[in-house]
Amino acid sequence: FKLLQLLRPAINQKQFKLYYQPMISLADEKITTVEALLRWPQPDGGFITPDQFIPLAESTGLISELGRWVIQQACLFCARHRSLGHSRLRVAVNLSVMQFKDGQLQHIVEKALHEAQIPADALELELTESLLIDETEQIQKQLNSLSDLGVTIAIDDFGTGYSNLGYLRNFNASKLKIDRSFIIGLGTAVDDEPLVEAIINMAKSLGLETVAEGIENKATLHKLLSMGCSVGQGYYWSKPVPEEELGALLNKSN
Ligand code: G
Ligand code: G
Ligand code: MN
Ligand code: NA
C-alpha cells in the first residue's frame, strides 16, 4: 500500500509537522498547556491525518522513531516559548503503547528534557484509556518512574474505553481528559450532563484534574465551570494550529 511505502522516507526526511492546540484554565481562560498533534503535510497542500498514519506507524514499529521525534520537538517548542516569556508553559504529547515496548521511553524523555533545558513538570504525556486498561506491570513501572521524575501523566479520551476503572488505582495519573463525545452532547443530549458531572466528581475524589475536550461554545464552557471542571480544550478557543499562529494566542493569553 502506497502510504506504507511513503512512511519510512517521510520519517527520514522529517516531513512531519507538529500542530499545537491550547488547553485553557476555565476560571481565567488562560493557556496552561499546549497539546502537540502530528500532521503529515502533502505536496498538494493537504495533510494526512494522524488517524490514517499512526496505526500504520504502530503496525510497522516506526512509531518508536516518530514518537521520539515528537517528544524532542515538543520539548524544544516548550523551551522556545518559555524563553519568550511564557515561563510556566507546559506541553502535552500523545503516546502509543508501542513506545513502552523497548523500555527506552524514560531515557528518551530525560534526554529531550535535558536538551531543551526544561523541567520534567513542563511535560505531560497523554495515554488513551485503552492503553492503560491493557497495561502490563512493565508499562505500569515505566509510568510510575516517569511520574516520579515529575512528568504529568494524563488519561486521554476518557469514557470511550472499556468501562473497567480498576486501572485508575494502579498508577500515578494526575489528569483526566473527558472525551469530546461527552462534551459535544452537553446542552443537547439529555443524558450527558449527569454523566460528565459524575466523571468530574470521580476525578476530583481520585485527586485528578479534569480537562474537557471538544468545547465549541461559551454555553458549554459555563456549564463545565459550574460542574467544577478546571481545564478545557476545543475549537471555542482554537483548533490545532502551526507554531507561528500559536505565538499570537500565547501573547493574547498573557
Ligand atoms: O489532531 P487530531 O485530532 O486529528 O488527532 C487525531 C488522533 O491522533 C488523536 O487521537 C491524537 O491523540 C492522535 N495523535 C496526534 N498526534 C499524535 C502523536 O504524536 N502520537 C500519537 N501516538 N498519537 C497522536
Ligand atoms: O484524542 P485526542 O484528544 O488527542 O485528539 C485530538 C483531536 O481532537 C484533534 O484532531 C483535534 O483536531 C480534535 N479536536 C480538538 N478540539 C476539538 C473540538 O472542539 N471539536 C472537535 N470536533 N474536534 C476537536
Ligand atoms: Mn490527546
Ligand atoms: Na482525546
Automatic annotation (TrEMBL):
<feature type="domain" description="EAL">
    <location>
        <begin position="1"/>
        <end position="254"/>
    </location>
</feature>
<protein>
    <submittedName>
        <fullName>EAL domain-containing protein</fullName>
    </submittedName>
</protein>
